[in-house]
Design a protein that fits this description.
Elements: H1 2-30, E1 34-41, E2 46-53, H2 57-62, E3 65-67, H3 74-79, E4 83-85, E5 107-115, E6 118-127, H4 135-195
Antiparallel strand pairs: 1-2, 1-6, 2-3, 4-5, 5-6
Helix pairs in contact: 1-4
């Protein structure tokens, strides 16, 4: 059990490292002020924050998990296309809980992470001043988001395979233990007969 918990924890750490790396790379690619990754849960119709760079505990605590309609990512998820927000400091965006309320952030580009024609999450990059994202920058972020989605799915599959192997080993040990117990139980009457 302890080994299984360690494996699960290491898988989660590996995924968290991936999210942090992707967010950091998005920040570096664009020279933006802040970048985030939010994953989309289609069944619950929610987005959950996975990474913020640079780290912002206040922002993170405010928006851990949001219903889709509370999120600025809703249009990018519903349309499966990039959405540009030229100025998120206006009152139009005050109701969106994941729109940063920071004076040094003005524009945002939300880029869906697509895998097998489904949105699995959104990479957001926020700029220091009002910014119109040129097409080259948009294409670069879309390609980056697509590669990130594939990397995320590969990491998830790897974690599942690793956990399955561990469960298989555990099952084999239980089967072996069961066989040993049945052999002991079978040999018990023979020993009783020898004593009598």
């Amino acid at each position: 059990r302890q080994r299984q918990m360690c494996i699960r924890d290491s898988s989660n750490l590996e995924l968290q490292g991936l999210w942090d790396s992707i967010t950091e790379s998005a920040l570096d690619l664009t020279g933006s002020r802040m970048a985030t990754i939010q994953l989309f849960d289609e069944e619950k119709n929610q987005v959950s924050l996975q990474s913020v760079k640079p780290p912002s505990p206040e922002y993170r605590s405010r928006i851990e998990v949001l219903q889709l309609e509370e999120s600025m990512n809703s249009p990018a998820i519903k349309t499966q296309r990039q959405v540009e927000f030229s100025d998120i400091t206006t009152p139009d965006y005050f109701d969106l809980k994941d729109a940063p309320k920071m004076t040094e952030i003005h524009s945002c580009l939300s880029t869906p992470m697509m895998y097998e024609n489904k949105v699995i999450g959104v990479i957001n990059v926020f700029t220091r001043s009002r910014h119109r994202f040129p097409n080259d920058e948009k294409r670069l972020l879309q390609a980056f988001a697509s590669l990130s989605a594939v990397a995320a799915q590969n990491a998830d599959l790897y974690a599942r395979v690793f956990n399955s192997e561990d469960l298989l080993r555990k099952s084999e040990r239980l089967t072996t233990l069961g066989l040993l117990l049945s052999l002991i139980h079978i040999s018990e009457p023979t020993r009783q007969e020898a004593i009598s």
